[in-house]
Specification:
- The protein is of the alpha+beta class.
- The chain folds into six domains: about 10-80, Helix hairpin bin (Helix Hairpins, Orthogonal Bundle); about 95-325, D-amino Acid Aminotransferase, Chain A, domain 1; about 330-430, Nucleic acid-binding proteins (OB fold (Dihydrolipoamide Acetyltransferase, E2P), Beta Barrel); about 445-530, 5' to 3' exonuclease, C-terminal subdomain (DNA polymerase, domain 1); about 535-620, 5' to 3' exonuclease, C-terminal subdomain (DNA polymerase, domain 1, Orthogonal Bundle), CATH 1.10.150; about 635-700, 3-Layer(aba) Sandwich (Rossmann fold), CATH 3.40.50.10190.
- The protein contains 25 helices and 26 strands.
- The protein has a five-stranded mixed sheet with strand order 2-13-10-3-9.
- Mean pLDDT is about 80; it is low at about 35-40 and about 75-80.
- It binds a DNA duplex through strand 16, strand 18, helix 18 and helix 21.
Length: about 700
DNA sequence: GAGCCTCGAGTTCC
DNA sequence: CTCGAGGCTC
């Protein structure tokens, strides 16, 4: 059996994954034995966690390969600082936010437009308080609670079955439920529970929790689930995931049904028929907010009818049929101690206010972004000013305004730096742009540092043990100057000092050499594992201007291999040439992005960086993900009118099945759906010999 | 050419 | 999470 340990989970083939899961099951179980017996464990907790995590990650990718003796099935059997990953059968989406009444009115109008409803047709909405807690998903099979998971990133969460099982008021079994039922809702801690907890914490000489949401999060993620049980967490159900047999047709009926199944639902929930009713509800609940025993941060509206919800579908991260109407953010007054500027990887110079720490929105805030030059000037913010701050969307602190009445004396206006504070190069603002940028490029140490940080970041190379702190440290020491240096680190470290080796070698540093050696070994293992990398991650990691995750993927998809891509980029120097035309023909790439790509590869230094990486790594060709949909990966074009759905709906539907929807017919088009009244597009399709379907044929193809 | 939507880049705190 | 900007659609 070949050694699969070094291979990144995402590039494992199915047969390899099967082998690897078998090995992990044996290995983990062997370590469990050692741990629970009298023998000392053979490996560190971190290394053990890494094994379990890898097991969980592979299982999340290949759920059908989960073994009967899988280590993930005996959660809690061993000490673990990591929870196993769980892949949600249906993604847990987040909600679009609104802050003003007009945005709510716009939301309802948009729903109407999308569905093609008449002006006078009512859109019933279910409105309920938005609990400020943690989303969780509870899975029942044959009426029995089998698994609980956190929301995580929406696609993959963490297995907290044991913890959720301790929640009082959640049914363990339900009678008359479908075979599979996933109930979703919010876990929260109410005021009495929070106060009791902090009294207990204090008595035990432990620090008090600062806010209820953190307390709830901490309580839910206890490794010892019995502790969770003592925390008196609450739960309100509001939605569902996978359901084998759905017996409700509206959100309202769903809530009634799960109440019968003994799930707690929020008693303030109300079905509203009009905008006025919705806004009144918002105002009423807002007035009551302080009297409630639990924290809420807004009101959620959902289109009641499920057939409408289905037609509305969703845009990348949130459904079109729901909206979170937020309450105004909590504000606080504090003082600006100093205004500093930071230099990002693209050279963007961003101002940050260092604040006298202040408690707002549940946390201590001591920094706040000032966005850009114009923002500082318009709000006339100066060092030493008293300012109002708030947490935007209850997360990112921002300075709302300066309280000029409290200004002492006449502090000077803030002078925005005209040169880069890190390298002294000119800092310029392009015509019409909001940001000022350092023009130093590669000579600017800040930019190079930030490029490295981006390279190892989570969505790029994501090397365990090589986070921001580590990479900056290696940079300061001059050990890593370029991305490729990362992959030469182990070799340099093993070289004697007089032959250019690292002195002293990494494992000989620090107070605890033994511990250090382990983490150094882990670091090298992590680096080795990333010598295999997908093309899309690789392109994203390069940090080309305007190329983020999506565009990286788009390019990978269109060019297939690194060699093919590079060749195309070097050939595309002429904006009138064929290679350039091909680049700009990609849906989502316009002249600016194309220029940024060509510029990047025209730069000698970048060429060398990519050459060196190419030599040290295996960049995997792009593989089309397996989907069973017949149109996955195809480019389709709609033309003419459609009868059973609007154009927007058809497009959303096609995209959710993995297709790309283009606006016009070209030789890259795979399929054209012809509605009545189609004109030139239909003709062009026939000329190019592209497959065409009528609306019914299309519906048959996609199965609905 | 205007108005939408999506993407990229930067940021905070735990 | 937000803002600005790029790209696409009408």
């Amino acid at each position: 059996m070949s050694d699969l340990r070094g291979i990144a989970v995402e590039s494992l083939k199915k047969t390899q994954a099967e082998q690897e899961l078998k090995r992990l099951a044996q290995e983990i179980s062997a370590h469990d034995g050692l741990y629970h017996g009298d023998d000392a464990p053979e490996i560190s907790d971190q290394a053990y966690d890494a094994l379990r995590r890898r097991n969980g990650d592979i299982e999340a990718r290949f759920p059908d390969l989960i073994r009967d003796d899988s280590p993930s099935k005996n959660v809690g059997a061993a000490p673990s600082t990591a929870f196993t990953k769980v892949r949600h059968a249906q993604a847990m989406l987040s909600l679009d936010n609104a802050f003003g009444d007009d945005e709510v009115s716009e939301f309802i109008a948009r729903v109407r437009r999308f569905l093609g409803l008449a002006e006078d047709e009512a859109v019933a909405l279910v409105a309920e308080p938005k609990i400020d807690g943690l989303s969780a998903s509870l899975r029942y099979e044959a009426g029995k609670f089998v698994q609980g998971a956190t929301r995580g990133d929406g696609t993959t969460g963490e297995d907290i079955t044991a913890n959720l099982a301790t929640l009082f008021g959640l049914p363990k079994t339900i009678s008359g439920a479908p075979d599979v039922l996933e109930v979703r809702g919010e876990v929260y801690m109410d005021r009495p529970a929070f106060e009791a907890l902090n009294i207990a914490q204090e008595a035990a000489g432990k620090p008090a929790y600062i806010n209820r949401r953190n307390a709830a999060a901490g309580s839910l993620r206890q490794l010892d689930a019995s502790i969770t049980g003592t925390r008196n967490l609450g739960f309100f159900a509001y939605s569902w995931g996978e359901v084998s047999d759905r017996t409700w047709d509206t959100q309202w009926d769903f809530l009634k049904q799960i109440s019968k199944w003994k799930f707690p639902t929020n008693p303030l929930t109300k079905r509203c028929e009009s905008l006025d009713e919705v806004l009144k509800y918002y105002a009423d609940i807002g007035a009551k907010r302080g009297d409630l025993e639990y924290d809420i941060d807004g009101i959620v509206y959902k289109v009641d009818r499920l057939d409408w919800q289905e037609r509305l579908g969703h845009v990348s991260h949130h459904p079109r049929w729901a909206l979170a109407h937020k309450f105004p953010a909590e504000q606080a007054e504090t003082k600006i101690l100093k205004i500093e500027v930071q230099v990002g990887r693209t050279g963007a110079i961003t101002p940050v206010a260092r604040l006298e720490p202040v408690f707002v929105g549940g946390v201590m805030v001591s920094n706040a972004t000032l966005h850009n030059e114009d923002n500082i000037r318009e709000k006339d913010i100066r060092e030493g000013d008293t300012v109002i701050i708030q947490r935007a969307g209850d997360v990112i602190p921002q300075v709302v305004e300066a309280v000029t009445e409290k200004r002492k004396g006449r502090p000077p206006k803030f002078k925005y730096p005209q040169v880069c504070p890190e390298c002294g190069s000119a800092a310029v603002r392009e015509e019409g742009e909001a940001v000022r940028r350092c023009t130093g490029g590669l000579i600017c140490p800040a930019q190079r540092k930030e490029r490295l940080r981006h390279f190892v970041s989570r969505d790029a190379f994501d090397i365990p043990g090589l986070g921001e702190k580590q990479i900056f440290q290696f940079w300061e020491e001059g050990l890593i100057k370029e991305p490729a240096d990362i992959f030469d680190l182990e070799r340099c470290n093993s070289l004697p000092a007089d032959q250019g080796g690292i002195d002293p070698p990494l494992q000989d540093r620090g107070a605890e050499p033994g511990k250090r050696a382990k983490s150094v070994a882990n670091l090298f293992a992590g680096i080795a594992a990333r010598r295999d990398i997908s093309l899309e991650r690789f392109l994203y990691a390069l940090g080309i201007r305007h190329v983020g995750q999506t565009t990286g993927r788009l390019l990978a998809q269109n060019y297939g291999s690194l060699a093919g891509f590079r060749e195309a980029m070097t050939a595309a120097t002429d904006p009138d040439g064929e290679a350039w035309a091909h680049l700009e023909a990609i849906d989502g790439i316009g002249p600016i992005v194309a220029q940024a790509l060509v510029d990047f590869f025209a730069e000698g230094h970048n060429e060398k960086v990519v050459d060196d990486l190419d030599a040290a790594l295996t960049v995997q060709d792009f593989v089309q993900p397996d989907t069973d949909s017949p149109i996955a990966g195809k480019t389709v074009v709609f033309t003419g009118s459609l009868e059973t759905m609007t154009r927007d709906e058809a497009k959303a539907r096609a995209q959710s099945l993995g297709a790309k929807v283009a606006g016009s017919v070209s030789k890259k088009t795979d399929l054209v759906i012809l509605g009545p009244g189609s004109g030139s597009k239909g003709k062009k399709a026939t000329e190019l010999g592209i497959e065409t379907l009528d609306e019914q044929g299309w519906l048959d193809l996609i199965g609905g």
